[in-house]
Amino acid sequence: MAPVKTSTPKPGRPARLSREQIVETALGCDLRTMTMRDLAERLGVSHSALYRWVRDRDQLLDLVSEVVVERILPEAEPTAGTWRQWLTDLAWGMHDQFLAVPGYAAHLATPHRHHAESFGRLRDRVVTAFELAGASRELAEQSWHIFGLGVVQWLGARQTGHDVGVDGPRFDLFLGVLLRGLPAREDAEE
């Protein structure tokens, strides 16, 4: 019996290249300055061969985001009793993984189109955590924005500032203050 093929490469595609190799190589590059030509050179393929696998830089960054988000999401789901620890674990995962990829945190901290599927999964899990903490759906959504923006901006500032020798507050202190204020709550009317 003949072995079953799991995927069929496009005609002309070099057999020695895969999306996994492309993403792993990109994860080692500074995403702020990396070009598709730089990536092709690191992979040892022609520029046009790389474009057979990845349409453009945006698609490449989407692939990188898929991998990074998969790495940071805790395996366990948050519960009413674990939501704060779950968010703490998630934030530390973001810290470790985003800062491990040169330029990734700085890239995320700038306005751009986020990969809808991977960041949608992240958003949904964080919103669920805030709902389990007692927030309404609307305030859980607002809390997601505060949490995501806060953590990503801290990481982006850390990555950019570290490059020029300027460090901000320690992440553990920042995260503790952030999570003590979340989930967002409506002000009580007097």
UniProtKB/TrEMBL annotation:
Residues 34-57 form the HTH cro/C1-type domain. InterPro entries: Cro/C1-type_HTH, Homeodomain-like_sf, HTH-type_TetR-like_transc_reg, Tet_transcr_reg_TetR-rel_C_sf. The keyword RNA-binding does not apply. Keywords: DNA-binding, Transcription, Transcription regulation. PROSITE patterns: HTH_CROC1. GO terms for molecular function: DNA-binding transcription factor activity; transcription cis-regulatory region binding. It comes from the Bacteria. PANTHER family: HTH-TYPE TRANSCRIPTIONAL REGULATOR RUTR, TRANSCRIPTIONAL REGULATORY PROTEIN. This is TetR family transcriptional regulator.
